[in-house]
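The following block was generated as part of the benchmark described in Methods. Ligand: adenosine-5'-triphosphate.
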Amino acid sequence: KETNLTQMMTDIIKRLQPMADAKYISLQWDASKEIHAEADEMKLSLAISNLVDNAVKYTPEEGTVKVSLDADHQNVFISVADTGIGIPEDEVNRIFERFYRVDKTRDRETGGTGLGLSITHSTIMMHKGSIKVNSKEEEGTTILVRIPLKQPTTHG
Ligand code: ATP
Ligand code: MG
């Protein structure tokens, strides 16, 4: 189904803005390009929400979270970049597992079940896309999502 991703993202940012405000985090989002794609809007919205929620949750007060949306002829690119606590190199490849939480965050006041990213991952896979993590401890994390503009047609 055709989805207005710019509108979807704007709604996500609006919903999470109070959480960012409470931590004096600058939540940056540029809604100037209107981008549409074939997607399951409910599922994709939750998937991207989980990323922005994490970015705000794992970024200390007065940090920055930058969200961007772009497209070329084939793909949509969404990135969520934060100036947060980062993820240790030896744990990066585990964060998409169900219930996985990084040691340091496990007993933190920032509650969570460790399900968010596993849901995000399966939704991106369902859309035949990809998700990549760039992270450095004490510096921040950037999550890059790609999904095709059109979903492959199923025959038969
Ligand atoms: P839930 O999303 O279910 O509320 P959660 O946030 O702990 O709980 P995930 O979203 O699956 O679970 O993330 C898994 C773990 O990856 C987190 O517990 C955290 O340790 C780490 N993590 C995820 N995003 C970030 C980020 N932007 N910066 C630092 N660590 C992160
Ligand atoms: Mg989460």
